[in-house]
């Protein structure tokens, strides 16, 4: 009987092992209109589509969407403490900065806000990823280059994982954009879901950068 129980336990371990690496991953999405399903119904947005996929695949990953259309890094910083206290996420994905850039906000201030968002999230015990953001070139090459370089710089300095700009692959296809040519439409959302599924899987499998930095 003991041998039978042992064999059953070993089988269960093999079956459940692929899921163990995903356990307890509660990912807070701190973003702007690109993640808030702007112009769409919430169930059409990439965040909900990806959550539906995780549930279909029985992956214990919960996405907490705290994105707000028009959000800036400063606005998110004012909200973050309460969000962290309410949800206690294991991971925080920062998809912000686009509205700072479109409004021509000073880049050092944006970097300061991003740094504070990362540090506050890490202090709450979360692993952090920062998404690189791109803006139209009509702000001039100097501002645009400094803006786009900010995300890699801050991520490296603070031990955060850097994600590539997820909209870039659909933004050049007018049929996938809303009339404002800024926000992806409903047809683009499944593509964004698949792009983000790959990025998030790579992030969860990557070494924990903030822990590594803290150990140095």
Concise overview:
The protein is α/β, with parallel strands linked by helices. It has nine helices and five strands.
Report how far apart the termini are.
50 Å
Q: What amount of the residues lies in strands?
A: 5-15%
Radius of gyration from CA coordinates? 19 Å
The total count of strands amounts to 5
Relative helix content: 40-55%
> What's the pLDDT, averaged over the residues?
90
Output the number of helix runs.
Answer: 9
Describe the structure.
With 216 residues, this protein is an alpha/beta fold. Helices cover 52% and strands 12% of the residues. It contains 9 helices and 5 strands. The protein has helices spanning 2-20, 46-56, 73-87, 98-102, 107-123, 141-158, 168-171, 189-205, 209-215, and strands at 25-31, 61-65, 91-95, 127-131, 161-163. A 5-stranded parallel beta sheet has the order 2-1-3-4-5, with helices on both faces. α2 (46-56) links the parallel β1 and β2 (61-65). The protein is globular. The model is unreliable at 8-23 (pLDDT under 50).
Feature tags:
216 residues; 5 strands; globular
What is the topological layout?
Blueprint: H1 2-20, E1 25-31, H2 46-56, E2 61-65, H3 73-87, E3 91-95, H4 98-102, H5 107-123, E4 127-131, H6 141-158, E5 161-163, H7 168-171, H8 189-205, H9 209-215
Parallel strand pairs: 1-2, 1-3, 3-4, 4-5
């Amino acid at each position: 009987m003991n041998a039978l129980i042992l064999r059953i336990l070993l089988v269960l371990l093999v079956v459940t092992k692929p899921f163990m690496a995903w356990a307890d991953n509660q990912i807070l999405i701190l973003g702007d209109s690109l993640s808030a399903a702007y112009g769409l119904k919430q169930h059409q947005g990439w965040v909900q589509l990806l959550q539906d996929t995780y549930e279909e695949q029985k992956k214990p990953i919960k996405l907490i969407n705290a994105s707000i259309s028009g959000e800036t890094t400063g606005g998110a910083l004012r909200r973050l403490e309460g969000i962290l206290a309410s949800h206690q996420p294991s991971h925080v994905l920062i998809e912000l900065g686009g509205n700072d850039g479109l409004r021509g906000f000073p880049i050092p201030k944006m970097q300061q806000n991003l740094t504070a968002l990362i540090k506050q999230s890490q202090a709450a015990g979360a692993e952090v990823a920062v998404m690189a953001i791109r803006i139209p070139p009509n702000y001039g090459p100097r501002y645009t280059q400094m803006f786009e370089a900010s995300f890699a710089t801050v991520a490296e300095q603070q031990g955060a994982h850097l994600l590539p700009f997820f909209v870039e692959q659909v933004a050049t296809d007018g049929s996938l954009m809303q009339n404002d040519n800024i926000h992806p439409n409903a047809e683009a959302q499944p593509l964004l879901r698949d792009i983000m599924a790959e990025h998030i899987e790579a992030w969860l499998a990557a070494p924990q950068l903030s822990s590594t930095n803290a150990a140095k």
